[in-house]
Amino acid sequence: MFPSIARSLLFISLVAAQTVTYQAESATLTGVTVGTSVAGFTGTGYVEGFDTEGDSITFAINSTKSQLYDLHVIYNGPYGDKYTNVVLNNLAGSQVFLPATTAWTTVSAGQVLLNAGSNTIQIQNNWGWYLIDAITLAPSAERAPHNVTTTPINPNANAPAKSLLKYLGSVYGKNILSGQQDPASLEWVTQNVGKTPAILGVDMMDYTESRMAYGARSTDVEKALEFAKRGGIITFVWHWGAPTGLYDTAEQPWYSGFYTRATDFNIETALADTTNANYTLLIKDIDTIAVQLLKLQDAGVPVLWRPLHEAEGAWFWWGAKGPEPAKKLWDILYERLTNHHGLNNLIWVWNSVNADWYPGNDKVDLVSADTYAQGDHGPISATYNNLLALADDTKIIAAAEVGSVPDPAQLQAYQADWVYFCVWTGEYIDGGSWNSLDFLKETYNSEYVLTLDEIQGWAD
């Protein structure tokens, strides 16, 4: 019923209520090869390589109608955690996480909106060295209404924090809030796009003790206060320079001290007990940041607070020793800031997708992810659906950092209900290769995208 065609292209008509498997070895291969040495694969082999940029598998698929399908990838990951890019019809794509495994494993790759007629699905090299056995497609079920909570995890959350979370819940699934990291980049959007983002992203980075010791200074809190007076929403990330142990070499300068590669600070040993010097330094750093957050609380400004971001990537020291120390540090941060310092204006935003790293629904207000795919304005649906499952659809979901802005039409078609996006600073917003000016203007003028002028009075 589903014959292969010439040139090793699978050309199969999809019909409703049916799961179809497409063997990787029968697709079009670019820079990759067919292997058979790892037992357990389906079909006649699997595809390996993915060690060079441009390596890919391309599946050709015929659909009887335009419809949304669930996509899964069957893979083996013997070389550690990896990512791959899945691209539909050379346009919309998703970055898909492939956790380390020595068994053939099926992972969700989100959804694809197939056109009636011919389509292509391409698996592209990202973090290479994984084995691909096959993909499967099945018609997507209608998504049930969201069941998210808008009650903060902090029982003493103040009125501004409660209002912010309630407001996010009111737009979730109906609109997406626009956001921009860094005040200078936000001003670039205003001047060049003609609209101002609803959310300003700022950083506690240069308030960190180890960076201030080298002369770093910041005015991000003052800039956040100014933006809040204009009716905007604030999100703070914290590039937390290691409290000690910075290499400060030509290869790893002090200002890279939040990276695992730039410090010998060991979070696991620092958290082994509460009496060692490195634990004391962690607490001192948290106390220093609390001073800045209290300025925002005193001014009545709630904060989308995103510490320990991208932990599962392990490129930051707080994630370098695996999930347990990172989750323990999250608990310490919450207890110290909330219970010791009385910070009740924080909405706690978790920023990793892997379930092993998740602190739990009782410790997180929002879940989020950071995704970078140059020039790809797809809906990031695989990541969204993974976050949906992570919190059992009880938490609002945010695209806390993006390189390329997702297309509003794609977001709605895929039901990828990100509550906000926040574009990273510099070339990501103004360089033209991640986001063209024409696309930004089109996006910011979409009725689906909310800008600063459209959210005035959100707290009410």
TrEMBL record:
Transmembrane stretches, start-end: none
Domain GH26: start-end pairs: 159-453
GO MF annotation list: carbohydrate binding; mannan endo-1,4-beta-mannosidase activity
Pfam families named in the record: CBM_35, Glyco_hydro_26
Matching InterPro entries: CBM6 (IPR005084), Galactose-bd-like_sf (IPR008979), GH (IPR017853), GH26_dom (IPR022790), Glyco_hydro_26 (IPR000805)
Record-annotated active site: E310 (proton donor), E401 (nucleophile)
Protein keywords: Glycosidase, Hydrolase, Signal
GO biological process: substituted mannan metabolic process
Domain CBM6 as annotated: residue spans: 20-138
Signal peptide: 1-17
Family: Belongs to the glycosyl hydrolase 26 family.
Protein name per the record: Mannan endo-1,4-beta-mannosidase
